[in-house]
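Hi V.,

You were right to ask for the full record rather than a summary. Here it is.
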Amino acid sequence: MDEQQKTKKQKSPGPKLKVKPRTPSPIVFALAAIGVIVFAGFVLSCGKKTDENATKEKATSADSATPGDAETNLNRLVGRWLRPDGGYVIEIRSVRADGRLDAGYYNPRPITVSQAKASHKGDAVQVFIELYDEGYPGSTYDLTYNPQSDAFTGTYFQAALRQSFDVVFVRMK
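Predicted structure:
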């Protein structure tokens, strides 16, 4: 092989590959749309009470409140709760007298819950859940229970990304 042929052979970059950017699967879009529809249906189905009715109900419940009512209110948290925007599930199996929760978290596989507790902040029931697992080191949920809509609203702090997101969990029937 002469020198000219060697040079040509070395300079040849080879076949050019076309790389297409990946677009999300239609299934991803369908699941997101279903989540939005479920959430919208939930929000629309929640009837809003008038201020007068809410005030009367609050006064009535305050008049009849007993120490056992706090525990009863916390027991309303027991159940499976779905986050419609992603299919994440919180399962609250029991509430101890000190507010500690026996809870699980699924995405869809189980994720380790390092701590879970419920407490009263004024009239509101607050729930704090900390996750500690691969991909979730120190991620937390700070949620408030709304008895009228039987749902949780609050924030999810994704520790790996150092970002917070507004979230809603609805009771699974």
